[in-house]
Write a structure and sequence with these properties.
By secondary structure, this protein is of the alpha+beta class. It has one domain. Helices cover 29% and strands 27% of the residues. It has a four-stranded antiparallel β-sheet with strand order 1-2-3-4. It has a four-stranded antiparallel β-sheet with strand order 7-8-9-10. The longest helix is centred in the middle third of the chain and has 31 residues. It is globular and about 65 Å long.
């Protein structure tokens, strides 16, 4: 944020920042557009913190410390209160889960996406045999799938159908989702890659998370 310099005074390398107090609620959010869904995460470090009613989160007595309330909004629509969102458009994760997703998209996703696209392109063009097992291959359209466990209990899946490039002007369409405790949330890929590409956001969330963990450990 630029500051106004006093006349006649040389001012350089200015920096102004605003930092939250320990335990503040963070809202990590990017609104939907005409072509991309919105994504929002309300990050609660301490369930005793006053939660703005506008978010529509569960009562603090029903929530746990270090919890993320995540929801996806359709294209061209605002976020609704969390309790009013459709079940298939929201999921509750721990802050550690959220940091794991953040780190995955920041550091791992580009290479995963590149490999998925390479295989999907081979399927679409039919120029190379695609290997199923050591001694078994195929030559046709198909689906390329990826799955990984992030941390201890969060499953991330991604898939791409080679036929989508033929119906979308040459671009392949990814389907990416996270799952935990039998709940599955499809992620708006374009939106989350923009959001999770900001490494400074990760550092802020991680710092507040580590502070909260230490505070909660002392209070036990």
């Amino acid at each position: 944020m630029p500051l106004v310099a006093t006349a006649g005074v040389k001012v350089t390398n200015e920096h102004l920042s605003c930092l939250p107090r320990k335990g503040a609620i963070l809202l990590h959010s990017l609104a939907s557009s005409a072509v991309e869904e919105g994504f929002q995460s309300a990050i609660v470090f301490d369930k005793r913190t006053r939660v703005p009613a506008s978010l529509g989160l569960p009562e603090t007595t029903d929530a746990e410390d270090l919890t993320c309330f995540i929801q996806v909004s359709p294209c061209y629509q605002h976020f609704v209160k969390y309790r009013d969102a459709a079940d298939d458009s929201k999921i509750v994760l721990t802050v550690q889960n959220y940091l794991d997703i953040y780190a995955f998209f920041n550091f791992k996703w580009p290479s995963v996406a590149s490999k998925l696209l390479a295989y999907a392109n081979d399927m679409r063009t039919g120029t190379d045999w695609v290997q199923l097992t050591k001694n078994l291959s195929f030559l046709s359209n198909g689906t390329c799938n990826y799955s990984a466990t992030l941390g201890d209990d969060l499953i991330l899946t991604a898939s791409v159908d080679s036929r989508t490039a033929q119906s979308s002007g040459g671009d392949f369409t990814f389907v990416v989702a996270v799952a935990k405790n039998d709940r599955v949330l499809k992620l708006p890929l374009g939106t989350v890659t923009k959001m999770f590409g900001d490494i400074q956001g990760y550092k802020h969330i991680e710092k507040m998370y580590l502070t909260a963990v230490r505070t909660l450990a002392v209070s036990v």
